[in-house]
UniProtKB/TrEMBL annotation:
InterPro entries: AB_hydrolase_fold, LYPA1-2/EST-like, PLipase/COase/thioEstase. Keywords: Hydrolase. GO terms for molecular function: hydrolase activity. Residues 23-209 form the Phospholipase/carboxylesterase/thioesterase domain. The lineage of its organism: Bacteria, Bacillati, Actinomycetota, Actinomycetes, Micrococcales. Belongs to the AB hydrolase superfamily. AB hydrolase 2 family. This is Esterase.
């Protein structure tokens, strides 16, 4: 059954129209941004992927601009059910819109949480994930045991001066990711809730390795 607040095809930004046979990397922006935010990173990322930047379906409360994947305010702040719903919307969109030979996820902040939640919903579907200044949600999902067995590659980058993500979520993610993924990443001194040039270099290196692995598996 289709979820409400489905993703809008009309605002998805694609890096290329010639996508047949290319691995796909889906870009998931953060709270208050839109599809243009992470699409600006594409020139700095490996050219072998097709990139799709999608727009979150919800509008944050006024006066916050942009869009959000799930509410982070009020009594339902960061409720894991809403994060799971957001990930399910993403999976539904992918089911209907792409037949890529391999799919990875790259998200910032909220988008990073959605990327990890989608990985948990369909642990055998996604090849890898990149979590920039994001976190893993507490609670158990049916795919967690499979994920712990598969241990897909995950890159997690965050800054020492990030005062946006609650400390308890960082603590949980520090414990959860090594148990459910092949984790790599870095904590960047002095970086706040953002993406630095050093982090982009590390992400590019990680994605190059994933592209090589996907290519080798399909050879």
């Amino acid at each position: 059954m289709a979820l409400s607040d489905a993703l809008n095809d009309d605002v998805v930004l694609w890096s290329t129209d010639a996508r047949a046979g290319l691995p796909l990397l889906v870009l998931l922006h953060g709270y208050g941004a839109d599809e243009r935010d992470l699409f600006g990173l594409v020139p700095h990322l490996p050219p072998g992927f097709a990139y799709a930047a999608v727009r979150a379906p919800l509008a944050p409360p006024f006066p916050t601009p942009g869009h959000s994947w799930y509410p982070i305010e009020g009594l339902e702040s960061r409720d894991p059910r809403h994060v799971t719903d957001a990930a399910a919307r993403l999976v539904e969109w992918l089911d209907a819109r792409t037949d890529a030979p391999a799919t990875g996820l790259l998200g910032f902040s909220q988008g990073g949480a959605v990327a990890l939640q989608a990985l948990r919903l369909q642990p055998e579907r996604f090849s890898f994930a990149v979590n920039l200044s994001g976190y893993a949600m507490p609670g158990a999902l049916p795919g967690d045991d499979i994920l712990a067995e598969r241990r897909p590659p995950v890159f997690w980058g965050r800054g020492t001066h990030d005062d946006v993500i609650p400390g308890q979520l960082i603590t949980h993610t520090v414990e959860w990711l090594p148990a459910h993924s092949t984790l790599s990443g870095r904590v960047y001194p002095g970086m706040g809730h953002s993406v630095s040039q050093d982090e982009l270099v590390d992400v590019r290196r990680f994605l190059d390795l994933q592209f090589d692995a996907i290519t080798a598996a399909g050879a």
